[in-house]
Amino acid sequence: MKRINVIGTSGSGKSTVSRMLANRLQYPYLEMDAIFWKPNWQESSDEEFFANLTDRLNDECWVLDGNYNRTAEIKWARVDTIVWVDYSFARTLYQAVKRALIRIATKQELWDKTGNIESFKKSFLSRDSIVLWTLKTYNKNRVRYTELLNDPKYHHIDFVRITSPQKAKAFIAELST
């Protein structure tokens, strides 16, 4: 395991699992949202995003945190392992809401030098709400990721499906550094 992509619905725990994996394996942690988002919630163009992502994935070892389905050809060209964080709907929704509330309360900048912070309006009352996104994509993602597991096009990739925080900790603890 040298090039790992951690996937899952927003709020599932991708970032937590990714950071734990990167720390355990002593690999660079790459966050797709940090590569994509610019200051003031401006989005990168696909051209810019794809170039930045390709550049960041040139290293020999990394843990990539994120989905962005349109980047599959780029990120999975060299990936050897996909870790799917597939917790229950109730747990995922709870984590998404809790995370949003903590970020709102702490006014935590999400990605360095962007100034992007969560607000109550953006998190709960907007069409771009991360909580709404979690509600809308949970079932679709489970179908899509199950299909990926069985797609012969990706037979060269090891898929690891993690269904609870306890199983995530056990999986990571078993890894040798």
Describe the structure.
The longest helix has 21 residues, at 130-150. This protein has a 5-stranded parallel sheet. The radius of gyration is 16 Å and the shape is globular. The model has no long low-confidence stretch (mean pLDDT 94). The chain is built from 8 helices and 7 strands, in the order E-H-E-H-E-E-H-E-H-E-H-H-H-E-H. Helix 1 packs parallel to helix 8 (165-174) and helix 5 crosses helix 7. The chain has a domain at 3-88 and 141-174: P-loop containing nucleotide triphosphate hydrolases (Rossmann fold). It starts with a strand and ends with a helix. With 177 residues, the protein is an alpha/beta fold. 49% of the residues lie in helices and 15% in strands.
How much helix is in the residues? 40-55%
- For this structure, what is the CATH homologous superfamily of the domain at 3-88 and 141-174? P-loop containing nucleotide triphosphate hydrolases
Biggest sheet layout: 5 strands, parallel
Given the structure, what is the number of helices? 8
Give the H and E element order.
EHEHEEHEHEHHHEH
CA-to-CA gap between the ends? Answer: 10 Å
In the CATH hierarchy, the third-tier topology of the domain at 3-88 and 141-174 is known as: Rossmann fold
User: What is the architecture of the domain at 3-88 and 141-174 at the second tier of CATH?
Assistant: 3-Layer(aba) Sandwich
Q: Strands across the major sheet, in which order?
A: 2-5-1-6-7
Can you tell me the residue ranges where pLDDT is under 50 for at least 5 consecutive residues? none
